[in-house]
Amino acid sequence: NLDIVIILGIILCFSVLSQCQNVKSFMEKHIVQDNAEIICNDTIRNRNLRNRDGCRPRNTFIHDTNGHRIKGLCANIIESTVIISDMSFKLTDCKMQKGTQRPPNCAYKQKGETGKIHITCERNNPVHFVTFDVSFGVSWSPSILFVVALILLRELLTLVILT
Ligand SMILES: *[C@@H]1O[C@H](CO)[C@@H](O)[C@H](O)[C@H]1NC(C)=O
Question: Which keywords does this chain's UniProt record carry (predicted)?
């Protein structure tokens, strides 16, 4: 019976260890400081982010210092679950340029975005970035568009009545 305890212990140890690895690699791949203006070319090279067979085709950075807000999103989620954030995050989306060279000379186009993120949480921690939905700025929220449409409609009606 002691054998079983030891074996269980070893299995647990490995799974916890791999868990730590996942969180660590998530942070390394996806987390940058709140207000940092990053250059994809530089950050991806400095962090040595690459695929086994070459440059990473795409990588999205989330501006969330130390991953505080994201860890909050994963709190109390034990089983592997994809969640969508209620709030929007500042993001820097990096896409590999055509004809790019091999690591460490990967060249990226980049775009600043704001969006809700889809991430996989496991045992209270983020482990995988899935995708994001671009959020529209406040000035183009549906209600404002509706008001603009009403104003245009009124102008149009006035025009029709006068002519
Ligand atoms: C990234 O590197 C490529 C290739 O050197 C270059 O064309 C591009 O302008 C760089 N992007 C930025 C934002 O510096």
Answer: Signal
How many residues appear in the chain? 163
Entry pTM? 0.75
Ligand 1 nearest atom to the CA of residue 41, by list position: 1
pLDDT for 10-30, tens place per residue? 666 556 656 667 899 999 999
Q: Which pLDDT tens digit goes with each residue over 81-110? A: 999 999 999 999 999 999 888 888 999 999
In the chain, the percentage of residues whose pLDDT exceeds 70 is 85
Whether 118 sits among the annotated catalytic residues: the reply is no
Mutate to test the pocket of ligand 1, among 38, 40, 41 (most ligand atoms within 8 A of CB): 41
CB 63 within 8 A of CB 105: no
Three-state secondary-structure class, residue 85:
coil
Residue 40 CA, ligand 1 centroid: distance in Å:
9
Q: CATH number for the domain including 146?
A: 3.10.130.10
Q: 12 C-alpha vs ligand 1 centroid, how far in Å? A: 44
- Domain holding 30, by residue range, is 2-162
The tally of domains found in the chain comes to 1
User: Which DSSP state fits 92?
Assistant: E
